[in-house]
Design brief:
By secondary structure, the chain is mainly alpha-helical. The protein folds into 2 domains: 95 residues, Fumarate Reductase Iron-sulfur Protein, Chain B, domain 2 (Orthogonal Bundle), CATH 1.10.1060; 82 residues, no CATH class. 59% of the residues lie in helices and 0% in strands.
């Protein structure tokens, strides 16, 4: 990939935002490629993890935010453990997703964000994951109505899925934590802070 560097102020703004959100110093990355070499899902990515870092360094905001890579990252931290400069690339990918949400950028991987939202909604409602509801809602809302439908009875029989949700003992406290986080998020949106 070749880029022409034009506006350094815009470049620095994007990089500074990602560094602030991730609390990582991206200038430490010297593009050795260890992160990409170890990534278990790189074959599904359109841009390698080290290229994402380089694009952030160069201020290529649009390319980073429209890439599928940050949305496919499983945050398994293989990249982080392999990095000789200890750059936490999983945190950087999280920061890119956060920045895209703040900027209200259309997500290239709609199903990934749908699953994340449903997952968190389940946690908020029950205090733990209720897989049957998660799978059912995801398949319904994503349009994959009968995906893996034959696995359901087998998993129920083996006790891998429960018919009814179980609740955590601290549900009230958990809901308070969610309420505080949502309130902070609204404050950040209205004040423009990150």
């Amino acid at each position: 990939m070749k880029w022409i560097i034009k506006d350094l102020s815009q470049q620095n703004h994007f990089r500074q935002k990602i560094e602030a959100l991730s609390q990582e110093n991206l200038s430490l990355c010297y593009q050795c490629g260890e992160c990409s070499a170890g990534c278990p899902i790189i074959s599904f990515m359109d841009v390698s993890p080290n290229q994402i870092i380089r694009m952030i360094q160069l201020g290529r905001e649009e390319e980073v935010l429209t890439a599928r890579t940050p949305w496919l990252c499983a945050s398994c931290i293989t990249c982080t453990t392999r990095c000789p400069k200890e750059v936490d690339l999983a945190k950087v990918m999280d920061a890119v997703r956060q920045y895209a949400a703040i900027k209200k950028i259309a997500v290239p991987e709609r199903e990934t964000t749908l699953l994340q939202k449903l997952f968190m909604k389940n946690i908020k409602s029950f205090g733990r994951q209720f897989e049957l509801l998660l799978i059912g809602k995801f398949n319904l809302l994503s349009g994959h109505f009968f995906k893996d439908v034959l696995l359901g009875p087998v998993m129920l029989r083996k006790g891998k899925l429960k018919l009814l949700p179980t609740f955590t003992d601290n549900l009230k406290q958990l809901k308070q934590i969610f309420a505080r986080a949502e309130a902070e998020e609204k404050i950040e949106e209205t004040t423009g802070k990150q």
